[in-house]
Design brief:
- The chain is α+β, with helices and mostly antiparallel strands.
- The protein has three helices and five strands, in the order αβββββαα.
- Strand 2 and strand 3 form a beta hairpin.
- The longest helix is centred in the N-terminal third of the chain and has 39 residues.
């Protein structure tokens, strides 16, 4: 086999692999699209929804003839295309600030004591004695 034949075989294998991967990705995307469309068809008044732009609200009315939905958010109504509606994000559990502050205050009670000394570092008293010794040596050298 010459180099041209090996090159052609290699290119054909690469093309086949690309087609296979693209086909799998397309199937996955189609399945996700169908799932979203089925969810949108099952929407009813009272369901919580979000829009792709971030508006959170509650379904008031679904108008399938016009492919629209009316959403109530913060006591105002707005009309959206069904394609713009997505499932609302899942919110994590709410922890009030008072609970966090009380936990921090428990931890901070221990922090108000004197700072911990670092092993191997000279203590404050040792640093003061060293400074006094250097002052004494300076005065003796001048004399």
């Amino acid at each position: 086999m010459d180099n041209n034949a090996v090159t052609y075989i290699f290119m054909i294998v690469l093309l086949v692999l690309m087609v296979v991967f693209m086909g799998r990705a397309s199937k996955k995307q189609t399945a996700q699209y169908k799932e979203r469309e089925d969810w949108r068809k099952q929407l009813k008044p009272g369901d919580k929804v979000a829009t792709q732009s971030g508006l959170l609200g509650e379904v008031v009315e679904v108008l399938p003839d016009y492919d629209e939905i009316i959403i109530k958010s913060e006591d105002s109504l707005s009309r959206w295309r069904l394609a713009a509606v997505i499932q609302p994000p899942v919110r994590p559990a709410y922890v009030p600030d008072e609970d966090e502050d009380s936990e921090e205050s428990d931890d901070s009670a221990d922090d108000t004591s004197a700072p911990a000394s670092i092993e191997g570092a000279p203590s404050d008293a040792a640093q003061e004695n060293a400074a006094d010794d250097s002052d004494t040596e300076d005065t003796q050298a001048k004399a």
